[in-house]
Amino acid sequence: YLVSSISFEGVGDKIFENEETFSPKVLKIIADGFGPSKETVKDYLYNVCKTISGLDTLSEEITKFCILYNSKLVLLIDEVDKSSNNQLFLSFLGMLRNKYLQRNAGKDHTFHSVILAGVHDVKTLKLKIRPDAEQKYNSPWNIATEFKVDMSFNPQEISTMLDDYIRDKKVEMDIAKISERIYHYTGGYPFLVSRICKETDEVILPGKKENKWTAGDIDSAAKEIILERNTNFESLIKHLEENRTLYRYVGNLILGNKNYSYNALNLTINLGEIHGIFKNLNHKIAISNKIYEEVLTNYITSKIEGTDDITNDVVQSSYIKPDGRLNIEKVLLKFQEVIKEKYSKSDLLKSPEFLENDLRLLFLVFLKPVINGIGFSFKEVETSEEKRLDIVIIFRDEKFVVELKLWRGGEYHWQGIKRLKDYMLCQGVKKGYMLIMDKTRSKEFAFYEEDEITMVWV
């Protein structure tokens, strides 16, 4: 394969003045896209640029070029949406499309593949390329046909990658366990899988005495990635800020306030899937992976930090034990104290909506500065009528399970304790915690321990 990656971003408006200016410049951009190792190819195309006077001659030279090099030539066009409002650019895509059709009919030679990157809505782009009389959905670009191949990695595919890595680097690891842990955080999303492996290999492993990957190393890598700034996360936030309905869906999912049935025809759900934010989980929508969930949670909670003084007490107090471990009981009791002092006399606690929505958000805001930089958390939403939200906190090498739930009476409460114990067993922890939101008038700000479960009422 011979690949050229091109983009029209930042080239200015002058290139789009007319065909005579646009066509030779396009070929020069294609030549530049082949990179420094293909100087012979680039020199050939630079010379050809001098003979091009329009799209027709550009098409002819592409044919000659493909015949001459007789390779699988791939053209990747990036940032397509940013250029798709320019008619000359669309005419260029239309020309490539026609050559593709002609090639399939044995009447022309063209690129083996044309890849359009940065396309928000392929149907809209497709209709722009076609003349009005041809607006139909049998696209030669294979974008009208549903693409059902799952591009994410499953644990077995991650294991295969790690197996190759072990042979190359002579590193020890329990491949099955490590693969499952990577999948747990990434959901198999290729960028995140690669990023977590890179972090473990290049940052965490050199600081260890033994040449071995552990599940704790993957936890540490995930923690560092969650805190970093990269273009993938920036794009995630940009899509959220550009669509307030999508923002609301994400916020409700993160806080466990609401669950949404999966419907591919729902434009917001479809948009969330396109941008990799949502996935279909048992016919309900969910955040696509743990890392994205934590990045989005951090972003949403950071937006309200400073608008409320609930975090002031967090900064002024220490919740770390002398041995460096997290004092989770003190965290929960301090949160109970803050709610009692600052909110119990206000009208807020009289609102069921506050209890079910804002109180969960307040706890996440309260928790963030306590664990930030040392630990991180991820959330498991219970979609039953009991409306539970389980928060798993990883702090150094210790794990805590905190369940946020609404008080719905004694029977539901004991059922909840049983479910929490089952979840603790699944997570491999011996002690669990409940933060119980009680909206009854007779409630007390109580603290209670039952066997291995500590319960705090707010």
Q: Topology of this protein?
A:
Blueprint: E1 2-7, H1 19-32, H2 39-49, H3 55-69, E2 73-78, H4 80-83, H5 87-104, E3 113-116, H6 122-129, H7 155-169, H8 175-186, H9 190-204, H10 215-227, H11 231-242, H12 244-255, H13 267-274, E4 278-281, E5 284-287, H14 290-304, H15 312-316, H16 328-343, H17 352-371, E6 375-381, E7 389-395, E8 398-406, H18 410-427, E9 432-437, E10 447-450, E11 453-457
Parallel strand pairs: 1-2, 2-3, 8-9, 9-11
Antiparallel strand pairs: 4-5, 6-7, 7-8, 10-11
Helix pairs in contact: 1-2, 7-8, 8-9, 8-10, 9-10, 10-14, 11-12, 14-17
By secondary-structure content and strand pairing, the structural class works out as alpha/beta
DSSP, total strands? 11
The whole-number mean of residue pLDDT values reads: 82
N-to-C span: 63 Å
Q: Could you tell me the strand content as a percent range?
A: 5-15%
Query: How would the global form be characterised?
Result: elongated
Which stretches are poorly predicted, pLDDT < 50 over at least 5 residues? 131-145
Rg result = 28 Å
Strand line-up of the largest beta sheet: 6-7-8-9-11-10
Largest sheet: number of strands, sense, barrel closure: 6 strands, mixed
Number of helices: 18
Provide the helix percentage: 40-55%
Order of helices and strands: EHHHEHHEHHHHHHHHEEHHHHEEEHEEE
Write up this protein.
The chain is of the alpha/beta class and 458 residues long. Helices cover 50% and strands 14% of the residues. It contains 18 helices and eleven strands. The protein has helices spanning 19-32, 39-49, 55-69, 80-83, 87-104, 122-129, 155-169, 175-186, 190-204, 215-227, 231-242, 244-255, 267-274, 290-304, 312-316, 328-343, 352-371, 410-427, and strands at residues 2-7, 73-78, 113-116, 278-281, 284-287, 375-381, 389-395, 398-406, 432-437, 447-450, 453-457. It has a six-stranded mixed sheet, with helices on both faces. It has a three-stranded parallel sheet with strand order 1-2-3, covered by helices on one side. Strand 10 (447-450) and strand 11 form a beta hairpin.
